[in-house]
Amino acid sequence: MYASNEVHSCIQKAVELLGLGNQHLRKIAVRGDYTVDLQALEAAMVADRAAGCRPICVVGNAGTVNTGAIDDLQALVNLCVREGLWFHVDGAIGVVAVLAPSVKPRLAGIEKADSVALDLHKWMHLPFEVGCVLVRHAEAHRQTFSLTPEYLEHESRGIAAGHTWFSDYGLQLSR
Ligand SMILES: Cc1ncc(COP(=O)(O)O)c(C=O)c1O
């Protein structure tokens, strides 16, 4: 997985959680404006493929913690489409800026992301923790996390009724 060296620490945790090991998170150098250096990113990918590794995902920043830098998301989309990679955008801070016409163009490309993280408890001032991730591929998302023993069977009536069980879409159950 690839991200700039300005990326939030949660991405390292995610790589560890996936069992990939944090040595497989490639932290790519940034340019003077703290956005990911696209040439360095592509070079890292070429070197990794040559070494027998298989790139799977690029994480783009839509507002870093340190400086608010927004990576060139459009260029990252193009790279991911070309290389067949999952494109995740960390928009925990910055994604709501799409609501501002003056900033929206700087987020171009985010609409093609496979997944986007956004925290509504930041700029939207909603209660902690309204942290969300939007995933484009609903069935792949469900299949990844759904595990249904008999005591969690989805019922058609009663308090266990309904299709959307958040435990089917992440690691947490009731927490
Ligand atoms: C840019 C950025 N990414 C990710 C996170 C982590 O998101 P969460 O707290 O929703 O796990 C934060 C802060 O919380 C953040 O500021």
Explain what this protein looks like in three dimensions.
With 175 residues, this protein is an alpha/beta fold. The protein has 2 domains: 2-136, Type I PLP-dependent aspartate aminotransferase-like (Major domain) (Aspartate Aminotransferase, domain 2); 138-175, no CATH class. It has 4 helices and 6 strands. The strands form 2 sheets. The protein has a 4-stranded mixed beta sheet with strand order 3-4-5-6, with helices on one face. Strands 1-2 form a two-stranded parallel sheet. Helix 1 (9-17) links the parallel strand 1 and strand 2. The chain is globular and about 55 Å long. The model has no long low-confidence stretch (mean pLDDT 94). The structure holds pyridoxal-5'-phosphate (PLP).
How is the secondary structure organized here?
Blueprint: E1 2-4, H1 9-17, E2 26-28, H2 38-50, E3 57-61, H3 73-83, E4 86-90, E5 115-119, E6 131-135, H4 138-145
Parallel strand pairs: 1-2, 3-4, 4-5
Antiparallel strand pairs: 5-6
Bound molecules: pyridoxal-5'-phosphate (PLP).
Residues 8, 10, 65, 90, 92-93, 119, 131 line the site of pyridoxal-5'-phosphate (PLP).
